[in-house]
Amino acid sequence: MADAQLGTAGPFPTSGPDEDELYHPRSWLTHYVFSQDAKIIAVQYSTTALAIGLVALVLSWLIRLQLGFPGLVSFIGPAEYYQFLTMHGMIMVVYLLTALFLGGFGNYLIPLMLGARDMVFPYVNMLSYWIYLLAVLVLVASFFAPGGPTGAGWTLYPPQAILAGTPGQEWGIVLMLLSLILFIIGFTMGGVNYVVTVLQARAPGMTLMRMPLTIWGIFTATVLALLAFPALFVGAVMMLLDRLLGTSFFMPAIIEAGQRLKYGGGSPILFQHLFWFFGHPEVYIVALPAFGIVSDLISTHARKNIFGYRMMVWAIVAIGALSFVVWAHHMYVSGMNPYFGFFFATTTLIIAIPTAIKVYNWVLTLWRGDIHLTVPMLFAIAFIVTFLNGGLTGLFLGNVVVDVPLSDTMFVVAHFHMVMGVAPILVIFGGIYHWYPKVTGRMLDERLGRLHFWVTFLGAYAIFFPLHYIGLLGVPRRYFEIEGLGFVPPSVASLNAFVSIVAFIVGAAQLVFLANLARSLTHGAPAGGNPWRATTLEWQTPRTPPAHGNWGDALPVVYRWPYDYSVPGADRDFVPQNQPGLAGAGTGTAP
Amino acid sequence: MSLVLLYLAVLGGLAARWLSRQRLGEKPWLEAGPGLAPPPPDRPAAPAAQVGLALFLAAVGLLFALLAGAHGMRVPAGAWRVLPDPRLVWLATGLLVLASAALHVAAGAARRGDGAGARAGLLVAGAATLGFLAGQGLAWRQLWGSGAATAPDAAGAFFYLITALHALHLGGGLVALGSVTAAGLRGLGPDGLHPRIALCALYWDALMAIWLVLFGLLFRTPWSGWIDALCGPA
Amino acid sequence: MALILVLIALGSIAFHLLSPWWWTPIASNWGYIDTTLIITFWITGIVFAALVLFVAYCVFRFRHRPGSRAAYEPENRRLEGWLTGLTALGVAAMLAPGLVVWGQFVRVPGDATEVEIVAQQWRWSFRLPGADGRLGAADIRHVGDDNPLGLDPQDAAARDDVVIDGGDLHLPLGRPVKVLMRSFDVVHNFYVPEFRAKMDMIPGMITYVWFTPTRTGTFDALCNEVCGVNHYAMRGRVVVDAAPAYRTWLDQQRTFSQFAAAPAGRGRAAAPRQVAQDR
């Protein structure tokens, strides 16, 4: 690509599909259902992800019901407990977080923030969503299959996952693996699309270093996902063959219930390597978009440029690259060659450095800012706290010896819920409160938003912070009940009851959020084009919600980076990216 | 596992080379100001479809690299190197190379405006690819019934899995090649054909490169030693 | 918001100090692991409190007031350089002791006695070396009713091995043990919180871990890698005895050859299996 040069004025050729190339819906069905418009696909992805996320939320209630009040209800036996646990984890990580950040936020924001008319391959984009939906339906089908969904834990370790001692061995595991394979195929279609759009469809003047950090995060995460999902694909296909055709990729010689099975020679650790080769980048597939979005939220609502933009970009790229050489830190006590521990502990703790830089820069963006405590900003600040907490406990688990006593205890559960559950979900909420006005043209209700925020943030912190300590005590994860363990004092049961009650309240608070989403669609205050007075391109569209093709007659031309807030000499405290000078309304700036 | 890491390192190198040209060191805030003209847009050198396909193939390549790595960790060294008639597999490999070359010839012909040459190249490529698939099918049949699929060393299972996934990959390409050929035979001119043939040529290059690695992994070839060294247990 | 953030920082510290839940009293030589953990707690605790309090201060001090405007400061290389350097230092301060202790963790002392733990859904069995001081060969192929651990009947070293099928594991106080681990079916993990050390047991391979018991007593062992529907019920007990008591106990155990002669009276834990079939 040609180096950008300054000072050459002149007419700019429009990149991206021209108006006549753009796909045009011909009927209601192709407009709203089989739509190829990235904005519609984004809404489809988001609602599907939130819907299946609600299922996972209910499952978490049931898990907490058992942990907090063992034996209270009769319909949760050990088998059901493990099934709920497995499906909760898998849905949250893959079908909610990955799909919502990349399929939802990615589809909506990539074309709009870059000044493109749409994704580069709209048809493939549509297919991507429908395959995702199919994957979700296959997953849901496993609840109704004979024997129920798989209860192997979301890590699906063989041989356990496909043996009779695990619930859902008949159909559940097969459907789970099929669903993952479908998800990966669908995601790859979408992912290629997002990357090519970022590479090739940017508006004139939008150099890489003028991209908002949201796009940097989503872009890097998508590249990671394209390279990480093949490992899960390979693992899932091989396990499916072991289960259905009796091959022995992962299955060693096994005696089950006194019977020799026909398997032999396979390597269970091989699956763990494949799983975590996917699984660790997956953490960053979720985290990097969250990093990007939270950077933009903080900058916009503190009316200050993001501190150290270059460092932020470099850190995203560095984290992305490093995330491929840390996977075995999930396997310190897996029986792999123990000398790997030295290498993986070192890489894991090195990755903490760029991550820490990002935290400092968010905090330093607040310093001497003009902080508007809007609902999106509240969520962004809460993200800093929970992410900081979860990131720091990651230093315990990444440091190989410290991980030995803590692995597979509630400490791990608390850590990853804080860092990859609560923190990204707070960003998702913040992002929805921030962009809902652009998607619908109406603001979400502020009071309900604050109620939702406080209950969610404080509740989630109260749930997961104490759990670290019972993990330190040695309470294991994935235990249906912990009665009869000598080292567990009775006070743990009271704590579990408390945590469960808080979890029910936090879960109920999400209903407030859903009600807010539904009600504001028709009753929210009209938002105008740019309610947050933000600089990035999606707020400068000629119409709100943006029309098909996004930009009317001419593509926007980008004159500056996305963080010109409170620039000395400018007449307003923000200068949109498509405004040539410091003063006055630029082209296409909505009033 | 080394093969996987090497592959990632190559991709990382390409990404780094590309990033290094994106002026990531610039201070974007200094370039704003009155009278500043936006830089000329980065005119993409390659069409979007080409870039998208290359990305997809990079992911597919990693998938096969992971399979090869898994093979190295799972199958004991020298357990099984086999069994279908080697002449048959060499012949099939030759056909795949021929198909890839024919597509390049076809792309060149289309670029020069030689519609007939392009069509001929497409037909040769299609026929050679079908020949490759037929060879694979025969190899499968020779193995069938030998019980290799569920043998404890998993070499047979890997053979079936890897060749099946490769055939699936190839089948996807054949659908595209078929549609291009059909369009060519229906009279689409060389200008319209060229971008599509170029995509097919890229796809077949990847098919061939992946197959050569898999061939070295599954059979005894002059370069098998290299593959073994790279795929061995880490 | 600012007030709440202060409360979160102080509340977290207070919880840390006052919480009744802390690690179990250690019963092995891995006090170094606890030390590394404490170092990590100090460093991360300070960082956490400092950053959250700083955010609280910013939220309070720089909250929006009519007419206020943010400062314009795109970056500050010196500050960023300092922060990066300090972070690297803090990370090194945690990593270095961690790696040193890991070095000890993976190197088994030469005088360690071998002990074997065998896991299957959902119970533990144990094997101790006999008079010859070493464990004989074993393979899953040899498993049968009179040979629950699959010892090789041809191997002389195996015949005098002490087989404990259904009882507690006893270990002598103050002697390093290298625990070899096998599994017959799925991945398990033998975890005694008081010992700190643990390792997965993988079917088809032998993993190991070593430690020295430093305190007598009876400790609960549990499975710590999800292994099927009765994972939570897969418990065991380890008893650490002083030398005389250990001798007495050991003399009461049966060797493999005795076991093969009279396989009766083995208390196979059939109950968990029953639960699985009731589903």
From TrEMBL, chain A:
It is a multi-pass membrane protein. Residues 28-559 form the Cytochrome oxidase subunit I profile domain. PROSITE patterns: COX1, COX1_CUB. Keywords: Electron transport, Heme, Iron, Membrane, Metal-binding, Respiratory chain, Transmembrane, Transmembrane helix, Transport. The chain crosses the membrane at residues 49-69, 89-114, 126-145, 173-196, 216-241, 283-299, 311-333, 339-363, 375-398, 410-433, 453-475, 495-515. The keyword Lipid metabolism does not apply. It is found in: Membrane. This is Alternative cytochrome c oxidase subunit 1. Belongs to the heme-copper respiratory oxidase family.
Automatic annotation (TrEMBL), chain B:
The keyword Transmembrane helix applies. It is found in: Cell membrane; Membrane. Its main location: membrane. This is Heme-copper oxidase subunit III family profile domain-containing protein. The chain crosses the membrane at residues 45-67, 88-110, 116-134, 197-219. The keyword Manganese does not apply. PROSITE patterns: COX3. It is a multi-pass membrane protein. Gene3D superfamilies: Cytochrome c oxidase, subunit III, four-helix bundle. Belongs to the cytochrome c oxidase subunit 3 family. Residues 1-223 form the Heme-copper oxidase subunit III family profile domain.
Automatic annotation (TrEMBL), chain C:
Belongs to the cytochrome c oxidase subunit 2 family. Pfam families: COX2. Its EC number is 7.1.1.9. Keywords: Copper, Electron transport, Membrane, Metal-binding, Translocase, Transmembrane, Transmembrane helix, Transport. It is found in: Membrane. It catalyses: 4 Fe(II)-[cytochrome c] + O2 + 8 H(+)(in) = 4 Fe(III)-[cytochrome c] + 2 H2O + 4 H(+)(out). The gene is coxM_2. Signal peptide: none annotated. It comes from the Bacteria. This is cytochrome-c oxidase. The chain crosses the membrane at residues 38-60, 81-102.
